[in-house]
Design goal:
Elements: H1 9-18, H2 24-34, E1 39-42, H3 49-61, E2 71-74, H4 78-94, E3 101-104, H5 110-118, E4 123-126, H6 128-135, E5 148-151, H7 161-176, E6 182-187, H8 193-201, E7 207-210, E8 217-222, H9 247-259, E9 264-267, H10 271-285, E10 290-293, H11 299-310, E11 316-319, E12 334-338, H12 344-351, E13 362-367
Parallel strand pairs: 1-6, 1-7, 2-4, 2-5, 3-4, 5-6, 8-13, 9-11, 9-12, 10-11, 12-13
Length: about 375
């Protein structure tokens, strides 16, 4: 079956002009979504699965702009929501669509929230927590006309307390809606896929679309000293007053990798380390080569920093989990993981920030800064 046959001639023409061909996630996902059944699309980062979920909904809503909120997109990360809003501008502009898109997160000013309450957008991009707040406020009346619910990055919340809370909100939305709506789940490659599907559908019937593609990973574990038992004698971040520290050896190694690549994301596990590591890299380079990115920064600062990396104006971001989900960071050459990412799934998710497209392999260097027992976790 031609996957583009499910679209109107206008949407098909725009896609064929903008892209050479559908990705596997789109080729397999569009017929499943067009059937109207709940659908889970599982595919790696950079596979086009977000457009696969959105484009069919946009195509169906395009003839009826201004008829109220009918499509809700839920992501567990605020920064990803604003990235999705930016990425939607392309197809909406190309289709000359009059559909309005709104973003409702904890960063949304009260003035904008009030405006959305009076005049709801056609498409709402939000977080699990903000969806709960909408369901418990006057805005809940605007949710009754929902026709499509997109749950992105579901692998990041399924099986967690946050995921359980989201599942309850989705069931409340189902009871509130005037008629049953379609659920579309998007997930990175996870096993067992059936369990992720149960989370999305609430244990109801669901189509599972496995568009997973094994990508070559260029991985390297870097130990910047010859003997971990005698790393040095300069206490620094992470040492907590110890008489020796590996950190003075880590900084030059990371800076060398940054200078060898066009665009690098360095992942760390806390905000303090992100700030300190970015500062040390800049001091060592004697110029601004790195900026810190974490959830404590204001939304405007985060967006500014992300745009600097995308535009090539700064070669490195030192980030916490604020950048590990599906944000489109453009052509990132290298991901560096400092210390253990704490789980294999999180490590692989961070790997996905490099080579955020279908063809290239992902280059990852993992810096080993603590006991060797953590080395298996550090294979990111």
């Amino acid at each position: 079956m031609d996957p583009l046959a499910v679209f109107s001639p206008e949407t098909r023409a725009w896609f064929e002009e903008a892209f050479s061909a559908p990705t596997p996630a789109q080729r397999l996902g569009w017929p499943a979504i067009a059937s109207g059944r709940d659908t889970l699309i599982q595919a790696p980062t950079g596979s086009g699965k977000t457009l696969a979920a959105f484009l069919y909904g946009i195509d169906k809503l395009n003839s009826e702009p201004g008829d109220g909120l009918r499509l809700i997109y839920v992501s567990p990360l605020k920064a990803l929501n604003y990235d999705i809003e930016r990425n939607l501008r392309g197809p909406l502009a190309g289709l000359e669509s009059e559909l309005r898109v709104g973003v409702r997160t904890g960063d949304t000013p009260q003035k904008e929230r009030a405006a959305m309450l009076r005049n709801p957008p056609d498409i709402l991009i939000t977080t699990p927590e903000s969806l709960y707040l909408l369901l418990t406020s006057r805005a809940r009346e605007n949710l009754k006309g929902i026709r499509t619910l997109i749950l992105d990055e579901v692998h990041a919340v399924a099986g967690t307390k946050r995921g359980a809370h989201l599942a309850l909100s989705v069931e409340r939305l189902r009871r509130l809606a005037d008629e049953p709506f379609q659920r579309i789940g998007l997930s990175a490659t996870q096993r067992p896929m059936e369990e992720i599907g149960r989370f999305v559908s609430g244990a109801r019937d669901i189509q599972l679309v496995d568009a997973g593609v094994a990508k070559e990973l260029d991985l390297k574990v870097v130990v910047p000293v010859e003997d971990m038992r005698e790393p040095g004698a300069s206490p620094d971040i992470g040492s907590e007053g110890s008489q020796s520290s590996i950190w003075p050896s880590i900084y030059p190694e990371i800076l060398k990798l940054v200078e060898e690549h066009r665009s690098t994301i360095v992942f760390v596990n806390n905000r303090r380390l992100a700030e300190r590591l970015a500062l040390r890299l800049n001091e060592l380079a004697e110029k601004d080569v790195a900026r810190a990115h974490h959830g404590s920064l204001a939304r405007e600062q985060r967006v500014e920093i992300e745009e600097l990396l995308k535009a090539g104006e700064i070669p490195c971001l030192v980030a916490t989990s604020s950048l590990e989900l599906g944000i489109d960071m453009g052509a990132v050459d290298l991901v560096i993981q400092v210390e253990s990412p704490k789980s294999v799934a999180r490590g692989l998710q961070r790997v996905g920030r490099a080579g955020h497209e279908l063809a290239p392999s992902r280059r990852v260097a993992s810096s080993r800064s603590s006991a060797p027992t953590c080395s298996s976790r550090r294979l990111s």
